[in-house]
């Protein structure tokens, strides 16, 4: 097979290839969509993740957390707070993370609860802020207060 160079494929394309591979087989789907069979095998393994990600996104970038125990503990705290009806802000998340880090200094050496850490943490744990779709006539409606947001939990 001639060298094709590197090419990025978005999640929607990968899901089409997966559907074709499930209908026939990996090799036939690879030929049909002109991709490498190894890509088809990899995409089938990560099908569930591909279904959850935005259709236009190409890669699953993002590293592993440096303090996994801290993140699990803080994520559990966020879920319990939300289940009891308490609002959870980014500042509360950062404060809770710092408290946990001071109680467990061996596990969290060098940890600082920055805003960027909080954003990445929320993305990794599926606690991100999600804007709901706005209606097209929001500018004409004077009672409209801006986009509504909801928080999704894993």
TrEMBL record:
It comes from the Eukaryota. GO terms for molecular function: DNA binding. The keyword DNA damage does not apply. InterPro entries: Brinker_DNA-bd (IPR018586), CenT-Element_Derived (IPR050863), Homeodomain-like_sf (IPR009057), HTH_CenpB_DNA-bd_dom (IPR006600). Residues 128-154 are annotated as: Disordered. It is found in: Nucleus. SUPFAM superfamilies: Homeodomain-like. GO terms for cellular component: nucleus. Its main location: nucleus. Residues 58-131 form the HTH CENPB-type domain. Keywords: DNA-binding. Pfam families: BrkDBD (PF09607), HTH_Tnp_Tc5 (PF03221). Residues 145-154 have a biased composition (Polar residues). SMART domains: CENPB. This is HTH CENPB-type domain-containing protein. It comes from Trichuris suis (pig whipworm).
